[in-house]
Amino acid sequence: MTLFAYAFAIVLIVAGIYHFVNPSFYYPIIPKWMPRVAANVAGGAAEILLGVAMLVPATRSLGLWGAAALMVLFLPVHVVDLLRDRPVIGSKLIAVIRLLLQFVLIGWLIWEARRI
Predict the structure, then answer these.
(1) Quick check: pTM over 0.85?
(2) Average pLDDT over residues 102-116
(3) What pLDDT sits at residue 116?
(4) CB neighbours of 109 closer than 8 A, spacing ≥ 6?
(5) Which of 43, 48, 103, 113 has the CB geometry, 3.0–4.6 Å to 16, for a possible disulfide?
(6) Considering only CA atoms, which of 75, 65, 16 is closest in space to residue 42?
(7) For 47-56, what is the mean pLDDT?
(8) What's the pLDDT score for residue 36?
(9) What is the 3-state secondary structure (H, E, C) of the chain?
């Protein structure tokens, strides 16, 4: 696993913990039709579990594939944000960049998982 993959695993774990420390940070990006508390808890727990799985050799492959799947699941949330008059992330340009980077991240996670 590359150094970048280790760093991403740590980012996932930290972001997952932050879902529980400051859930109001994530609420604005969660679409109104989704149950905010449940979506936040599920997202945070998934990020923590997948980040840890990526760090453990026995579960690394599963963690990488799971992280790629999670990033795919997050795509609709980012599209909804992009379609807002004022995206939560800031500007339309930043929302587009984030969405494009999401596809790069998904591809990279799949590439990384296939190497194992």
Answers:
(1) yes
(2) 96
(3) 86
(4) 8, 64, 65, 67, 68, 71
(5) 48
(6) 16
(7) 98
(8) 95
(9) CCHHHHHHHHHHHHHHHHHHHCHHHCHHHCCCCCCHHHHHHHHHHHHHHHHHHHHCHHHHHHHHHHHHHHHHHHHHHHHHHHHCCCCCCCCHHHHHHHHHHHHHHHHHHHHHHHHC
